[in-house]
Design a protein that fits this description.
By secondary structure, this protein is α+β, with helices and mostly antiparallel strands. The chain has one domain: predicted glycosyltransferase like domains (Thrombin, subunit H, Beta Barrel). Helix content is about 20%, strand content about 45%. The chain contains one helix and seven strands, in the order βββββββα. It has a six-stranded antiparallel beta barrel.
Length: about 110
């Protein structure tokens, strides 16, 4: 799966701040770019949730992928890039379904 530019996905993780929702700017099956003022060091492991905000015309609520390990691989001036660390092949398959259902559908509607 190629990297997709998104505007409907948030990364949620504990960083010590009250507002721990951070925009995901692009995502693929291998990782994501997260926009945040928080300065994470390369190599840091973060357990995060991905929330795909749905179109207001759809009756269902947000789609959530929970407890995904990720490792910071690069810092940028306005965020950082992570590589997803899967616990097993099943977790990777579940993320693929989440991205196809939540991200690819939103891209197709744009």
């Amino acid at each position: 799966m190629r990297r997709i530019r998104v505007n409907n996905v948030l990364a949620v993780y504990w960083d010590g701040l009250p507002d721990s929702f951070h925009p995901v700017r692009d995502v693929s099956l291998g990782g994501a770019y997260i926009e945040t003022p928080v300065d994470w060091s390369s190599g840091s492991l973060i357990r995060l949730n991905l929330i795909a905000q749905q179109d207001h015309n759809k009756p269902r609520g947000p789609d959530i992928f929970r407890n995904l390990w990720s490792q910071v691989v690069r810092k940028t001036p306005d965020g950082f890039c992570v590589e997803f660390v899967f616990e097993d092949p099943t977790e990777r398959k579940k993320l693929r379904r989440f991205l196809e259902r939540s991200v690819c559908e939103a891209e197709a509607r744009a």
